[in-house]
Fold this sequence. Notes:
Shape of chain A: globular
Structural class of chain B: alpha+beta
Protein name (chain A): GPI mannosyltransferase 1
Function (chain A): Mannosyltransferase involved in glycosylphosphatidylinositol-anchor biosynthesis. Transfers the first alpha-1,4-mannose to GlcN-acyl-PI during GPI precursor assembly. Required for cell wall integrity.
Number of domains of chain B: 2
Mean pLDDT of chain A: 86
Family (chain A): Belongs to the PIGM family.
Strand content of chain A: under 5%
Strand content of chain B: 25-35%
GO biological process, one term (chain A): GPI anchor biosynthetic process
Keywords (chain A): Endoplasmic reticulum, Glycosyltransferase, GPI-anchor biosynthesis, Membrane, Transferase, Transmembrane, Transmembrane helix
Number of strands of chain A: 0
Distance between the termini of chain A: 33 Å
Number of helices of chain B: 9
Oligomer: heterodimer
Number of helices of chain A: 23
Amino acid sequence: MASVFHRPSLIYGAxxxxxxxxxxxxAWQDAHSAVKYTDIDYLVFTxxxxxxxxxxxxxxxxxxRYTPLLAWLLVPTAAPGPxxxxxxxxxxxxxxxxxxxxISRSLVSSYGMEPARALRYASVWLLNPMVAxxxxxxSSEGLLCVLVVALLCAALSRRVVLxxxxxxxxxxxxxxxxxxxxxxxWWLDRERELSATTTTTTTSTSTSGSGNKDDGVGxxxxxxxxxxxxxxxxxxxxxFTALNIxxxxxxxxxxxxxxxxxxxxxxxxxxxxxxxxxxxxLVASGDVQTGxxxxxxxxxxxxxxxxxxxxxxxxKRCLAxxxxxxxxxxxxxxxxxxxxxxxxxxxxLPFYLPRSSLLRQPRRGITVAVLxxxxxxxxxxxxxxxxxxxxxxxxxGLFLASLGFFAVNCWILGIIVTDVGCLSGQTERRVKGRVE
Amino acid sequence: xxxxxxxxxxxxxxxxxxxxxLSTDALSLRTLDAAREDRTTFALDEIxxxxxxxxxxxxxxxxxxxxxxxxxxxxxxxxxxxxxxHVLFTPGEGVEGDxxxxxxxxxxxxxxxVDCVSPEASFxxxxxxxxxxxxxxxxxxYTRLPSLDSLVAYIERGVCSSSSDPDNCRQQAEALRSADSxxxxxxxxxxxxxxxxxxxxxxEGGWTEEIxxxxxxxxxxxxxxxxxxxxxxxxxxxKMGGLLGVVGNDDxxxxxxxxxxxxxxxxxxxAIYSVSxxxxxxxxxxxxxxxxxxxxxxxxAPPDATCALHTYLTLPSxxxxxxxxxxxxxxLFLSSHNLAALRAVAGETDLEAPDWSVSRWGSTWLLExxxxxPTTAEEWNVTVPLHLRYLQPSATGIRSAAVPWPVVFWAxxxxxxxxMGVNPFDRANLGWDGLFGPRTMFYQLHxxxxxGAPLVEELAVPVLRLENEGLFQGKVIExxxxxxISLGFVWVLWKLGMVAxxxxxxxxxxxxxx
Lengths: 436, 514
């Protein structure tokens, strides 16, 4: 079995074959059944691409809530014929495979893993049927995931400018990757800062009698601002701003409205996995009673965890693990949550699993997997009762199911946080030293 | 004021000349079994001033109302609209009208259930496919309206009190309570308001009444026609024969026979359809239109005419179609629903908005239906996939959404030069007719619900269950949500705290294991 992973061509061949099979099967199902394999979102993308191909704005298509870049990328789908129609799916599936390849490569280069072992963990992504299914149905998450992995790889190999550009691009594409700015900034140059901190603490203790406390803080701040961090910030900001200005000049108000402002003003009153969904339905319909407007504070726990505390506590130990925990916290505490969001953290699984307690303690690992699936299944059953059987399952069914799923996710997040916390900051550094 | 009473008898209905008697003073009807149209035309100065002001701000205003009871629609009154109140409105050019006044008037006249703020906020704009067809209105409104009681009260209160013949006015108004449909038309060219009631059948015991000659003989006029349909020579024509007279002018009814090209034609009684939402409807109900074989026969249009079966859906804001799904050209999707194409859509088609954030009344959908080989003897089922909006929470967890039956008809091309307008019974501006070219003939199918059932389907929409007391209170949801999220937040923070506190130890520990 292990020998399979010694032959990368076999694994990548299988990953590509899996996707090709799904693509061909999808085309067949689309052509022979009224129930389509292709995701509705893909029709939104391709409609928008058709508008762009005709020189119009992609926002002419209702519910197109993405950057125009996506519509540009998919312009070939506007050409006639089934191959061109599938172009976007091929692109998304290819992104998946490239993401898998990057994972495996960086597991070797940055974490010093044996290539065969690295490939085994990368297969969690490469050969994951859920991942292959989502991208071949035409969901653009694959594109985002390859960017995020590339961002991680660039940061790990200290290609700071590249990391900044990727970060800017990823945020432009889908806002949420901005949380990675915190962890990458914290992680970069942590070595230098650590030594700076130790020197300042030693000096301040040695000169504790006369030493000014402000000197320590000032020195900390100065030692925090390093060329690499400035570089990263500037590259990210420049990319993000340049893209937005370009898009705004090209498409004006609708670009801002649909890509960004929509996410600020939207009230997701419809049922979804988020623990907030019942409350938001209540609020949106104007039926709240306490008038405390809890929902307007929903971003507080979400951002405190994903932008502040997790990067601060874990950032210097393991970048990939921190990013996984951040994403997991962001998705778990988000005001809206659908199953494609799960892909956002699943991409980090190959980095996290090798040193996680989920594999060391198989019983725990199985419990986590089973609870995660069962909590979703319970919710899905309530959702089915509502959506297809017309039962009023909002309360208590969906309400409790989403809170239950949230509780399971918090428990899992606790495990991830503890696992990543047990890693020493040496892991990535040591290996990096070897690469350089 | 001019009044035209048309009594339409079926050829097979027994008729005795003594049942309709015209004298120099009055027309008397006795136990006459006939469908009836009663059309009254008012000059602008004959209507209440508040109403006049609203009308003068319109270029054109057409109100169409149909009862929820199924009723026959014999030619030349064959056209149909979905049950409820339809308002088609074109504002006058350069008229400074605050839009709200039209809605206020509609509420006054038809009752407070007319959920209308202003034409800009509440009306939808129908697509104008044919700009040549100037009759298309620029804005359209619909609401469910089971009865005309409010209108009757309004007429009695606001119109009859100042009428020259209040008793007669009140009697006419009262009769509207049993009408099967009602049309109100106003246009700024003729400056006349016409109100027509239609009764598909006589009240029990037949029509028995005395219609006296008008009080103001110079300006008012009452025409009477007792007519029956005759076989027409041309397929696009309707031929009527019978007796005509003017009350007060003629001392007896005069025989007549005339024919005219008609926009709307009837079909045999067997050409029916029925509408249902097969359970479970969930949040994505499917409207099923069932057509027996007789409804699928090509209508008796000229042989060179092109005919296609259509349905026109009037959907309140609680329910909508996905225009991207329905406008597809995918033959698999279309044939699985027996649809041919989505021809027109207007109104609220937002896929995500909940009902409470939708300001306009709803949407209209013109769909061309696929038809099978007419020799197949089986029933034909057309399905239209629809979706429900989120509705306000309720104590039971269920709210009701009423969907009127759509109209189903054949549309056939008519020869150029066919002058539909010369038809004295012509009826246009129904909402759906304007979506076709002016030279189109329509052949109406008859809605046939279960005995006693209305032409409206009620859907049970699941909503958030919310009680004032007990377990399902809004407060419980709010507090439980906040409590669980806070607990989860604190749990993760605590785990992070453990990591931060034990950082030295953690490092040592990992150092040991590695």
